[in-house]
Amino acid sequence: MNEILAIAKKIGIHLLAMIGILLVFLMLFFYMYLPKYTNHGESVSVPDLEGYHYEELEAFLKARDLLLEITPDSGYVAEEKPLHVLKQNPRPGTKVKQNRKIYVTLNAQNAPLISMPNLVNAPLKNAQEILANHGLVRGDISYVPDIGMNVVLEQKYRGRDIREGFEIPKGSQIDLVVGDGLGNQRLEMPNLIGMDDIEAEFLILGSGLRMGNLNYVKTDTVPKGTVIKQLPPSGIDASTGERVDIWVSELEEDLEL
Predict the structure, then answer these.
(1) Separation of alpha carbons 189 and 203, rounded Å
(2) Measured distance CA(247)–CA(229) in Å, rounded
(3) pTM
(4) Residue 38: its H or E element
(5) Rounded Cα–Cα distance for residues 241 and 179 (Å)
């Protein structure tokens, strides 16, 4: 009987010793090894990268124990500088673990090309919405005499008429020529033939008409810069704000240069 108790006592002591060792091991694992392995309690606050240039990012993040990842899909904002950060993920202020990748979207170096929409004959309000939807910017508005009030008569890019479908950079400024609603006044079309081109343009604008296309014609019989044709022709009944196209002489040797 005494021998059985002694054996049981030894077994109990061994079990307790094993349990104690196991508890120590578990404590070391959960409170020392595991926190160190998972960086438990060590976090980094994500900085705000908006406006940073691409070349600054990697060193800036590395100094904060973070990694850089550039997303393949770039954006484009005309007001922002090329290759500067537009968006980031995670957001600024987010707490993340060390060596976490920060994904950033950069502003494209070159503006993407878009097709110019047709704004002619559209109400000004609609034209502005169309421009915004296409990523274009409304520029200057010029009012001219025309029966259509606040109706777009011409669309211009860098001072020149631009046709529908012509490709221009996104964010470009489009100037509009708009009717003032007073184009129901009638006048006689002036005679421009024989005038120089500058004098003809002054007369067109001074008569309440609009300058249309300026075309050049090869000739060696008429002095350079002289109006040799106009459309509509002189003498007809015209409305204020009507376009007038003129053809101007240009010496043949000037055109060949």
Answers:
(1) 10
(2) 5
(3) 0.50
(4) helix 34-38
(5) 8
State the DSSP code for 131.
H
Q: How far apart are CA 216 and CA 224, in angstroms?
A: 10
Domain finish residue from 106, 135, 150: 106
Last residue of a domain, one of 162, 180, 198: 180
CA triplet 162, 75, 101: central angle to 5 degrees? Answer: 170
In a domain, 124, yes or no: yes
Q: What is the mean pLDDT of each run of 10 residues along the chain (257 residues)?
A: 66 73 72 58 82 88 89 80 89 89 89 92 94 92 84 93 92 91 80 94 88 90 93 90 91 54
Q: Has residue 20 been placed in a domain?
A: no
Residues 245 and 233: their CA atoms lie apart, in Å, by: 10
One-letter amino acid of 164: E
